[in-house]
Design goal:
The complex is a heterodimer of chains A (290) and B (504). Chain A is 48% helix and 5% strand. By secondary structure, chain A is mostly helical. In chain A, strand 3 (57-58) and strand 4 form a beta hairpin. The longest helix of chain A is centred in the N-terminal third of the chain and has 25 residues, at 71-95. Chain A is elongated, with a radius of gyration of 36 Å. The model of chain A has no long low-confidence stretch (mean pLDDT 91). Chain B is α+β, with helices and mostly antiparallel strands and 504 residues long. Chain B has 3 domains: 17-34 and 253-352, no CATH class; 50-76 and 140-238, no CATH class; 387-499, Immunoglobulin-like. In chain B, 40% of the residues lie in helices and 19% in strands. Chain B has helices at residues 9-14, 54-72, 111-131, 134-139, 141-157, 160-168, 173-199, 204-213, 218-238, 240-246, 249-256, 268-271, 294-298, 318-329, 342-349, 361-382; strands at residues 18-20, 23-24, 89-92, 97-100, 103-105, 263-266, 337-340, 387-393, 400-401, 407-417, 423-430, 436-439, 443-445, 449-453, 457-467, 476-485, 490-499. In chain B, the strands form 5 sheets. In chain B, strands 8, 9, 10, 12, 13 and 15 form a 6-stranded antiparallel beta sheet that branches. A 4-stranded antiparallel beta sheet of chain B has the order 14-11-16-17, with no helix packed on it. In chain B, strand 1 and strand 2 (23-24) form a beta hairpin. In chain B, helix 7 packs across helix 9 (218-238). The longest helix of chain B is centred in the middle third of the chain and has 27 residues, at 173-199. The chains are: A mainly alpha (290), B alpha+beta (504). The interface between A and B is medium-sized, with 24 and 19 residues.
């Protein structure tokens, strides 16, 4: 260390700090004053911030600060504002019938927007983001409906669900004819040919003949004598080319053998009646509505 | 670094150094002179002397003009009929509209702003190539507000000498009073600047009332506070440092200019060799510059114009006013410092005749770009449609197969009416043999179908096209939507496709 003060370095013309190590001296290039100023201002700001804002954890909570600020409260207040802003339209939605909603362009746009948002939040995981469905999950865009495609039918299905926990749920059960040994394996094979034949595709004629009585005895009760289905029981039409569990022979065989049946939850208690209305209008408007 | 020499001003006043008969030599030192420039240094305060002269008057006039535009434009009214704002120039963020007199721009048409920015840039280049940095000297907000703030300073603290003396004085009550009132008035102007800005984004009379009653939104108050802070800091405290250190334009300009561009030029061919002149001495074998430093004292940028063209110079020509006055007093022709070109200085030094070459490749190129861009802008503005149509085909699902094998595609249509009156527009669909066309909420339709659209609104519709199995063609086929205003004959056509889902 040198005790020389304010020595000026010859090369740079800058003052040195007076520190010296083995002949190497340190130039005194302090931080700019504006920078120091901002630095101290930040410290003062931070102290003020501790006082007015929530800052320090305590053993069983945290310091709330003078402002008692809470982001959660802010969000709740904003949600409240949003609800208030929507209240008049929600009331209209509540008072209008489904048909009235559809014929009022402004209300229709509102309902479709709300329905789309609610669909994305609640329905898309099974039915797909565009309502396109998947194996075992119905496509909501086409004109095939198990429980009916009118506005009222759709609204009811959403409200009570299918095979759900609701008391008034839509309920039907395809038996597991093979697994539960209600029919012999050969009979299930014959019935498979019969169903393929129903949908207008080439099938084993002998098997179809053998299965005619089997179908009338076991299937016609729900699917109808011609296999056209029955919406009151949620029994699908077997003559169209829409297959919830797949169109191939092995898919049909599997369905007769195991009798799959999906579950749609009841939304009655979870979503408001207005949201369900909006959903019904939205799903109806996907294209398949009747 | 060199600090300002410690002058005993009283003495300097009692024994003035004469540059020539009747002209006192100013002790001004250019704080930013070429010799004084360093990469890092503290700011040396500049006390520009107020000058009289033609350029000073132009600068006052430009200040009045530009500030008037800024403060008054939001108060101009423009009748757009019921339901639309009646402010001539308004950026309506809430409703996503920009109004400029008879023009209304939707967010989709932001390319008009792009065009305007291109025009501004090219105009700046052209002016720069012709007359130098007129923008910097006369119309840049930084220049205008700095000038305004210096004017306030001069009114309160006095001219250059008085201000230098005041700065050197200890903190007496008088000094405190002057400084406080100066900063208070600066802050007043600064708040008014921010205050005017917010009127461009809100209905001015309504907002003024809200501001008076304290009912304006937090965003408005923040905008005023931020702009007040920047105006006060940049215009009052930082001044020439903004141009010298922060602004990119001097650098860009330096790369774009040539020595045929007019700029404030010290005609060294005439001025050198400089030196004090005594009464009665001949003017032979010496320059006209008597080294009185009045040009330095007048410079708001703290430079010495005699160092030549430099990026610190904003071309305000206040030094021209200062020098002309001196030349008049010593009986020499005016224009030792003038708007001239470096090329002319060189020509005169060689004994050639000076001349101005305004027609140069770059000026012609800039003019050509200006004309072309203006023409494109004008054409697109005249051709602007008030009817527009967007079609978004459903991608999820891409297509829907119905029970009977028919195929259906869904489309979201956006019908835009940019007019201030409700309209009935005809939607036509062509190019496809559809079994059924269905609009949700309207029902099955046979196009062309009339559809009402509210004024200045977009109507969103969902339309479904179903094609029979027998008519489905593999791959995709073209579908054309068109929207027509039968009253005016305006039509918008959108080509899209129908996807069958069958392999080609």
């Amino acid at each position: 260390m040198s005790d020389k003060k304010n020595e000026i370095d010859d090369v740079s013309g800058t003052e040195t700090t007076g520190h010296e190590w083995d002949g190497i001296k340190e130039l005194n290039t302090p931080l700019p004053r504006w920078w120091i100023g901002i630095f101290y201002a930040c410290i003062v700001w931070a102290i003020g911030y501790w006082i007015v804002m929530p800052a320090w954890p305590t053993l069983n909570g945290y310091t709330h600060g003078w402002f008692n600020h809470s982001q959660r409260d802010d969000v709740m207040a904003q949600v409240g504002l949003l609800k208030a802003a929507r209240a008049s339209k929600e009331r209209e939605l509540s008072n209008a019938t489904l048909a009235q909603i559809q014929s009022n362009p402004e209300l229709l746009q509102f309902a479709q927007a709300e329905g789309k948002s609610a669909f994305g939040d609640n329905c898309a995981p099974c039915h797909g983001s565009g309502g396109q469905g998947a194996h075992g999950y119905p496509n909501l865009n086409d004109d095939v409906w198990l429980w009916g495609g009118s506005l009222a039918d759709i609204q009811h299905t959403i409200t009570v669900g299918v095979r759900s926990t609701a008391a008034e749920t839509r309920q039907s059960q395809m038996p597991s004819f093979g697994r539960d040994a209600m029919l012999k394996p050969a009979q299930v094979d014959d019935l498979t040919e019969y169903v393929v034949h129903l949908s207008g595709r080439p099938a084993n004629g002998a098997a179809v003949t053998r299965a005619t009585k089997l179908f009338a005895d076991n299937c016609a009760m729900c699917h109808g004598p011609e296999g056209k289905g029955n919406r009151t029981m949620g029994a699908p039409n077997l003559t169209d080319n829409d297959w919830l569990y797949g169109p191939r022979r092995e898919d049909i065989h599997d369905q007769i053998w195991n009798g799959h049946g999906g579950v749609m939850p009841t939304w009655g208690g979870r979503l408001t009646p207005e949201t369900i209305k909006a959903l019904a209008v939205y799903v109806h408007g996907l294209g398949g509505g009747e | 670094m060199t600090a300002l020499p410690n002058i005993d001003l009283r003495q300097a006043q009692t024994v003035p150094v004469m540059a020539a008969d009747g002209v006192t030599r100013s002790e001004a030192e250019a704080s930013n002179s070429a010799a004084n420039r360093k990469l890092y240094k503290s700011r040396v305060p500049i006390y520009p002397k107020e000058m009289d002269g033609i350029y000073r008057y132009i600068k006052w006039a430009m200040m009045a003009f530009t500030l008037s535009i800024y403060y008054l434009v939001p108060w101009l009214r423009w009748d757009r009929g019921a339901g639309a704002p009646h402010q001539a120039v308004l950026v309506d963020m809430t409703h996503e509209r920009l109004y400029f007199f008879f023009i209304e721009i939707w967010p989709q048409e932001v390319y008009y702003i792009t065009g305007l920015l291109i025009l501004s840039a090219v105009a700046l280049f052209l002016i720069n190539a012709l007359f130098g940095r007129l923008w910097c000297g006369y119309s840049c907000p930084q220049t205008v507000w700095t000038d305004l703030f210096i004017w306030v300073e001069t009114k309160i603290e006095g001219d250059r000498g008085a201000r230098i003396r005041l700065a050197a004085e200890p903190w007496t009550l008088r000094k405190v009073a002057k400084r406080v009132s100066k900063h208070a008035i600066w802050l007043g102007f600064a708040v008014a600047t921010g205050g005017a800005w917010v009127f461009y984004f809100n209905d001015a009379p309504t907002l003024l009332h809200q501001l008076m009653t304290g009912a304006a939104s937090f965003g408005v108050y923040s905008a005023i506070a931020i702009l007040a802070f920047t105006t006060y800091t940049l215009g009052g405290l930082m001044r020439e440092q903004v141009c010298t250190y922060m602004c990119p334009w001097p650098r860009i300009q330096a790369a774009m200019t040539d020595n045929e561009a007019l700029s404030v030029t010290y005609r060294r061919d005439r001025g050198e060799p400089r030196g004090a002149h005594r009464k009665g001495e001949p003017w032979d074998n010496r320059g006209s510059c008597i080294d009185c430093n009045q040009c330095v004292a007048a410079c708001p940028m703290g430079i010495d114009i005699r160092d030549g063209s430099q990026l610190e110079c904003i071309n305000c020509a206040l030094c021209v006013d200062a020098c002309d006055e001196v030349m008049l007093r010593i009986g020499q022709p005016k224009g030792l410092i003038a708007f001239d070109t470096e090329a002319n200085v060189l020509r005169r030094l060689k004994g050639d005749k000076p001349r101005f070459r305004f027609l140069r490749p770059r000026t012609m190129l800039y003019s050509a770009i200006l004309v072309v861009v203006s023409a494109i802008m004008l054409f697109s503005l005249v051709d602007r449609r008030t009817v527009d149509l967007d079609v978004l085909r459903d991608r999820n699902p891409n297509f829907v197969t119905l029970a009977d094998g028919a195929v259906r595609n869904g489309y979201t249509l956006k019908l835009m009416n940019r007019d201030q009156a409700p309209r009935v527009l005809n939607l036509a669909v062509s190019g496809i043999a559809a079994r059924e066309i269905n609009i949700i909420g309207v029902g099955v339709v046979v196009p062309p179908v009339p559809l009402g659209v509210d004024p200045d609104r977009v109507r969103t519709l969902r339309l479904l096209i179903t094609v029979d199995r027998s008519r489905v063609r593999p791959g995709t086929q073209a579908v054309t939507f068109s929207l027509t205003d039968p009253a005016r004959g305006e039509t918008r056509t959108v080509e899209t496709v129908f996807v069958s889902g069958d392999q080609k």
